[in-house]
């Protein structure tokens, strides 16, 4: 304990300021992102935007994919113009994007505002990581980055809790105000408490720095071990992101969460009120947020269990577990089984995700670790884009409730008005239930039994299975061939 205490004392103030900024930035990002799929697609009479699932998938997939590519440029900007200056610019752009996103309603305007949010986040990401690296040394880096990743998960957990409770009380607009307020705290931290860490000032022209970064990444990708691995891991990130892109919509449209609320209320009405809604349900984002909660509780235990595994073997095992978890989450309308699926998913995530980073560091040649680590965002970016496609057109065709209602009404040759500002999604669903002589629960069950929207679990789990097979082949032939040559 005394050694840990001594280590803590070695961290300079800027280290703690950087971690505090990470906490509030993750609070803002996940406070928005955990509810974004719902905000984009729910009925306009709830204050949401009523976009189609395809529009949602296109926006979330493309913008988030861009966010993970932009650090190629934004890291060079920070080196060129200084960390503190770029932090302030990042937070102003970030906060402006959030406030605009909550005040506009057209698809183009929301898309543009979300791009501003992504730009702000991309400006911030490389600076905070570099600050933690520069404020730690060989004796403190392990604990320092452990603290940093713990902060990431705490911020990612707290943000959705606040956005969920606030949106049910005050409406959707408060989510964006809350997120922008968290970023405003970061402006104050950067302005008054952040001290520029020691760094070599880069006077090289900006585009020259970017060009060198791209050339270096190209050299890293010439390593077959690295490139093949990154391509395979696109599958993992495509499947993984369905937790945020698609599962909130699936829970909202198909899952019975009353049974969870009633179970909690049976032993603690106060707790049920704290985690539930006024309608006696559990909000989808609160269900999704269990993933971050499980990670905070179990990450150290799971990491200790898989530490003896070779990275690729741990990744394969983790993706197997994630595939089961994501499949179970989409295969049922029972809220308790969805929670079980999210728990299983979290175990797999804890086993595989840290090993992904560790493996890239291990295969890097000496003195090229940072260069190889810089490529790790590529499968994340592409995986986000593909996740948007599966969450958009694929989900809309197979599992979207509004689409399936339209299909059912067409089967009965019943004409339905088009969804407009004056005839919302909720109006559409209510009219359909009325014409089919049932209520909303009966309509949901009819569609579930007729069109089997849960079958989308097969697609998501199949992505995981293909990724596992590819990794086994990679381990056998690519790594095996390299080992033989050595």
Quaternary structure annotation: single chain
The averaged pLDDT comes out at 91
Q: Kindly name the structural category.
A: mainly alpha
Count of DSSP H/I helices:
24
What overall form do the CA principal axes indicate?
A: globular
Distance between the termini: 43 Å
Task: Work out the count of structural domains.
Answer: 3
The major β-sheet equals:
none
Spell out the key features of this protein.
Growth Hormone, Chain: A, globular, mainly alpha, 3 domains
Explain what this protein looks like in three dimensions.
The protein is mainly alpha-helical. The protein is globular and about 70 Å long. It contains 24 helices and no strands. It folds into three domains: 9-203, Up-down Bundle (Growth Hormone, Chain: A), CATH 1.20.1250.20; 220-398 and 452-486, MFS general substrate transporter like domains (Growth Hormone, Chain: A), CATH 1.20.1250.20; 402-451, no CATH class. The protein has helices spanning 2-10, 13-41, 53-69, 71-81, 83-101, 107-134, 141-170, 173-192, 206-221, 224-240, 242-245, 247-254, 258-267, 269-275, 284-288, 290-306, 311-330, 335-363, 369-373, 377-398, 401-411, 425-435, 440-451, 456-485. The longest helix has 30 residues, at 141-170.
Summarize the structure.
The chain has helices at 2-10, 13-41, 53-69, 71-81, 83-101, 107-134, 141-170, 173-192, 206-221, 224-240, 242-245, 247-254, 258-267, 269-275, 284-288, 290-306, 311-330, 335-363, 369-373, 377-398, 401-411, 425-435, 440-451, 456-485. Helix content is 80%, strand content 0%. The protein has three domains: 9-203, Up-down Bundle (Growth Hormone, Chain: A); 220-398 and 452-486, MFS general substrate transporter like domains (Growth Hormone, Chain: A); 402-451, no CATH class.
């Amino acid at each position: 304990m005394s050694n840990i205490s001594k280590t803590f004392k070695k961290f300079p103030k800027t280290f703690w300021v950087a971690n505090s900024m990470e906490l509030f930035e993750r609070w803002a990002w996940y406070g928005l992102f955990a509810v974004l799929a719902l905000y984009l697609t729910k009925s306009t009479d709830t204050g949401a935007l009523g976009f189609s699932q395809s529009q949602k998938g296109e926006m979330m997939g493309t913008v988030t994919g861009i966010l993970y590519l932009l650090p190629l440029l934004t890291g060079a900007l920070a080196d060129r113009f200084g960390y503190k200056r770029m932090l302030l610019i990042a937070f102003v752009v970030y906060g402006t994007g959030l406030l605009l996103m909550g005040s506009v309603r057209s698809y183009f305007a929301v898309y543009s505002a979300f791009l501003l949010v992504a730009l702000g986040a991309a400006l911030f990401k490389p600076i905070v990581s570099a600050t933690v690296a520069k404020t730690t040394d060989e004796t403190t880096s392990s604990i320092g980055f452990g603290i940093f990743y713990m902060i990431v998960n705490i911020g990612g957990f707290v943000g959705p809790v606040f956005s969920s409770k606030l949106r049910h009380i005050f409406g959707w607009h408060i989510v964006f105000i809350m997120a922008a307020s968290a970023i405003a705290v970061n402006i104050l931290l950067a302005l008054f408490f952040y001290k520029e860490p020691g760094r070599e000032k880069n006077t090289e022209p900006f585009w020259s720095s970017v060009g060198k970064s791209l050339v270096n990444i190209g050299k890293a990708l010439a390593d077959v071990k690295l490139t093949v691995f990154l391509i395979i891991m696109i599958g993992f990130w495509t499947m993984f992101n369905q937790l945020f892109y698609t599962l909130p919509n699936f829970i909202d449209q198909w899952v019975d969460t009353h049974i969870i609320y009633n179970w909690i209320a049976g032993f603690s009405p106060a707790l049920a009120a704290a985690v539930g809604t006024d309608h006696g349900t559990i909000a989808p984002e609160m269900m999704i947020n269990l993933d971050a909660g499980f990670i905070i509780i179990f990450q150290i235990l799971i990491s200790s269990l898989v530490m003896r595994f070779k990275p690729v073997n741990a990744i394969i095992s983790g993706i197997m577990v994630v595939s089961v978890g994501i499949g179970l989450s989409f295969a049922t309308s029972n809220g308790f089984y969805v929670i079980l699926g999210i728990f299983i998913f979290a175990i797999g995530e804890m086993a595989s995700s840290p090993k992904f980073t560790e493996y890239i560091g291990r295969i890097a040649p000496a003195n090229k670790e940072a260069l190889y680590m810089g490529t790790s965002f590529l499968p994340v970016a592409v995986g986000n884009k593909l996740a948007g496609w599966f969450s958009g057109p694929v989900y809309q065709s197979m599992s979207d409730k509004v689409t399936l209602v339209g299909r059912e009404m067409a089967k009965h040759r019943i004409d339905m008005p088009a969804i407009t500002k004056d005839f919302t999604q909720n109006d559409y669903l209510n009219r359909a239930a009325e014409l089919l002589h049932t209520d909303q629960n009966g309509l949901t069950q009819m569609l579930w039994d007729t069109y089997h929207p849960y079958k989308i679990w097969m697609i998501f789990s199949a992505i995981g299975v293909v990724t596992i097979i590819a990794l086994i082949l990679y381990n056998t032939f690519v790594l095996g061939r390299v080992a033989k040559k050595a």
